[in-house]
Amino acid sequence: MLSSELAELAGVTVRTLRHYHQIGLLPEPPRSIGGYRRYDVSDLVRLLRITRSTALGVPLSALPAVLDDPAAVEELLDELDRQAAAEIERLNARRADIAALRSSGSPPDLPPELSVLRSAPEAGVPEEMARYEHEQLVLIGHLLGEGGPAELAALFEGADREMIERLEPLTARFYVLGPDTPEDEVASLIDDWTTGLAPLSERLAGTPEPDPKASALLDELNEQTLTPVQHRVLRRVLRRLEHEQRPAEP
Amino acid sequence: MLSSELAELAGVTVRTLRHYHQIGLLPEPPRSIGGYRRYDVSDLVRLLRITRSTALGVPLSALPAVLDDPAAVEELLDELDRQAAAEIERLNARRADIAALRSSGSPPDLPPELSVLRSAPEAGVPEEMARYEHEQLVLIGHLLGEGGPAELAALFEGADREMIERLEPLTARFYVLGPDTPEDEVASLIDDWTTGLAPLSERLAGTPEPDPKASALLDELNEQTLTPVQHRVLRRVLRRLEHEQRPAEP
DNA sequence: CTTGACTCCGACGCGACGTCGGAGTTTTGA
DNA sequence: TCAAAACTCCGACGTCGCGTCGGAGTCAAG
Fold this sequence. Notes:
3 domains
C-alpha cells in the first residue's frame, strides 16, 4: 500500500500519516527503491486503533500509553467524558446567548437584557451620544457581574411603561445639551428629570449599595465623554435624587 | 489602571491584553515614565466589547469588522450558531461512544458492538492470539463501515447463545495450534469447527458479498500473524463451509 | 520519452493565547 | 532610607493537530 491508499482506507489524509510518523505514533514502514513508503495491513490496524481513540477525544500524546495499557484508559475516559460534558455546557450557553441577542435585537457586545435601556433609534440621538450610551451599558453590564443585568432590567420592566416613556424624551433632551443651550432649558431639564427619575430612585434604594469602584469607573467615563454641561446636569440630578432619598444626611 | 488591574476587571489575563495589542485589537495606551501602560476606562470598555464577542465564538480576526459595523454581525451570528450546534452534535456522539464503551467493557480502540465477538479472558487465550483477535476486530469493525458492526453483532446476538458457547472452546483450541499439535487433533478441530460454524454460515449467506479488498486485507493479516498450521486450518474450514454453502459450484 | 499523477521532505501557518527568562520599575514595610 | 517583594516590560518559543506550499524526485501509461 502507498500512503494515499492507506490514508483513504483509514479515512485520514496523507499529511496526518506523516504527522504520526513524526511524533513516533506510527512506525516508519519499509521504503520502495524510490523512497516511497510501503505499508501493510498491520500499519492499517495500528492506524485504525489511533483514529478510533482520537475520535473519542484522546490526545495524541496519551496514545502511546493507551495503546498498550488498556487498564490506564478507564480514568482517561472519565476525564474525557467530563471535558466533553463541560464543553457542551459552554456551547449551549453560547447558543442561548446568541438566541437572546437575536430576539432582543441588540448589538452582540452588550448583554441582551440591557437592550431595554437603550434609546430608541428614532429618538434622534446624536451618534456621539449613542456611542456613549452603548459604552455605558457595556460597562454597567459587566460591572454588575453574574445575573446583574437581569436584575437591573427587571427593575425597569417591572416599572410602569408609562414612566419609561416619560423618561425617554428627557434623555433625548439631555443628549443634545451643548454650550449654547439656554440656561432656563437646562434648569427645566434638571427639574423634569429629577422628578421623572424619582420612582426609579426609590426602587433602587432597596438594592445594595453600588460598588464604589464601579461608580468611579462610570464617572470617569462620563467625565471623558460628556460635555461639561451634560456632566454638570447629570451630577445635579443625581445629587438631588440622593438628597431626596436621604434627607437626614447633611 | 495598570495591566493587571484592567485584566482583572475584565476577567482576562495580562498576556491576553498584550496579545490584543499585538494584533491591533486594543490601542496602546500612554505609558508611565518607567514604561508601564496606563489604561483608562475607555480601554476597559473596548476590552469588554471584545470579550463579550469572543464569548459568543466570534474569532478575533472578525472583531475589527464587528466592533464598528453592527449590521455585518447578523450573518455571523447565524454561522456561529450553526458551528456551535454542529460541535455539540459531535460531542454528544462522542459521549455516546464513551458510554457504550464503558458499558461494554471493551478496549477503546474497537467498536463496542463487536465486544461480543471477543474471547472471554478466562478462556486462556495466549497473549499473541488475543492481540490477533483484537487486531482482526479493529480491522473488521472499520472495514464494515457505518453501522456494519451493529449488523454483524446482531447476527451473533440473534443466534442462540448455545451455539456461541459451543464455538468458544473450538476457537480456544484453534488459538493454541502449533507445529507439534498431533495431526488427528488438527483434523478433529477442522471437523468440529466446520459443523459448529455451519448455522452462522447460513445466516451470512443471506447478507451481501463481503468487499474483496476487505477480505484481502483480512487474509493478509491472517498470513502475517497466524502460524502456518493455523492458517491452513482456517482456510480449510472456510473452504469447506463455502462448498457446503454452494455445492453446485465446481 | 513525455505527460500526468503521485510521493517525498522541510518549513511555515493557524488560533488564542501560556510560559519562560532576564531586565527594569514601583510599592511596601522595617 | 533602603532593601525586599511584587509587579511590569519585551522577545521568543510552545501548544495541538494537522493544512498548505514549494521544489524535487518517482512511478505507470501512452
